[in-house]
Design goal:
The protein has 313 residues and is an all-alpha fold. 74% of the residues lie in helices and 0% in strands.
Length: 313
């Protein structure tokens, strides 16, 4: 015959009554957490989801800038856009700009970060100088480089002793925008690389140096592999930003598409169709096509990162 102590008899009811308390607390936590995220979800729906849905609707109509008399036209705007040579030219300019900027800014940001990380004297001054241009507004950067590239009064031609029509020749116009963008935006990628370099343990370099590895081997075998994720992030962010180039290109050429429309980007073409030609429906269709392109680039980046992490395991 078994006997049950009073403590055991009281413990069983307590366990039964305490068991349901965890799910209850979890539900209460979810309810309270919902109030914390509600302001963000409200703003996100108001300024992101609703404009996106509105843009999709307008892309299916022939709406003008006045918003009156819009007629449903289905996919006619998309068919016209895919056959529009001006749209493909603008997309080509944005793609060519991206191909020039992304590799240059990635390499330049890495080299500047290495310099600022290993320099001993005046380290704070170097970091400030490399990052300071990123704090300038796009209009200031555009106007500054418009003056520097001016063939008559600018410093570029005078310092290097050349006579290149940077802002009036189709061969150099987009290159001038690339140079301006590199100087203006390299600070952000530089900061990412610098933070990553400071996170690499020093004992790895010390051990490699004891094994006889020189500076080049330490960079190739230690630094670059450990910065692989940061490099992928920098490349992805620069691709997304470069495809959306607009401000500096417009400011440098006084709100024109450049000589023979050689600097007209995709974003600029979209704005011209919507606010110059007053074809809001057609401009909305172009913007939706661009949105799909940007989303495809972002999803490709996520897929590559996931496969890389799985291979690393």
């Amino acid at each position: 015959m078994t006997t049950t102590s009073p403590e055991t008899a009281l413990a069983a009811p307590r366990a039964r009554t305490a068991a349901p308390s965890t799910p209850v607390r979890r539900r209460q936590g979810l309810q309270h957490g919902g109030w914390f995220v509600a302001p963000f979800l409200t703003l996100f729906a108001l300024f992101v989801i609703w404009p996106l849905l509105r843009g999709v609707y307008l892309s299916l109509t022939d709406a003008n800038i006045s918003g009156e008399g819009a007629r449903f036209v289905g996919l006619d705007n998309y068919r016209e856009a895919l056959k529009d040579p001006l749209m493909w030219d603008a997309l080509g300019h944005s793609a060519y700009f991206t191909l020039l900027v992304v590799p240059c800014i990635t390499v330049l940001a890495f080299l500047l970060a290495m310099l600022a990380h290993h320099i001993e004297r005046g380290k704070w001054l170097w970091r400030l100088c490399f990052f300071m241009p990123f704090l300038l507004p796009s209009t200031v950067a555009g106007n500054l480089w418009q003056w520097l590239f001016n063939p008559g009064t600018g410093m570029i031609n005078h310092v290097f002793g050349i006579d290149t029509p940077w802002l009036s020749d189709t061969s150099y116009a987009l290159l001038a925008v690339v140079v301006c963008t590199l100087w203006w935006t390299v600070g952000f990628s530089f900061l990412l690389y610098l933070a990553a370099l400071q996170g690499i343990p020093a004992h790895l370099y010390e051990a490699a140096e004891l094994d006889g590895a020189n500076a080049w081997h330490r960079m190739v075998r230690i630094t670059l592999p450990l910065l692989r994720n940061i490099t992928g992030l920098v490349v992805a962010l620069q691709i997304l930003a470069s495809l959306q180039v607009f401000d500096q290109a417009v400011v440098m050429f006084d709100f024109t598409p450049g000589p023979e429309e050689s600097t007209r980007t995709f974003v600029q073409f979209t704005l011209e169709e919507g606010f110059t030609s007053y074809r809001v429906g057609y401009a909305s269709a172009i913007s939706i096509i661009f949105f799909v392109l940007i989303a495809a680039v972002a999803l490709a980046r996520m897929w590559l990162l996931r496969n890389r992490e799985e291979d690393g395991r």
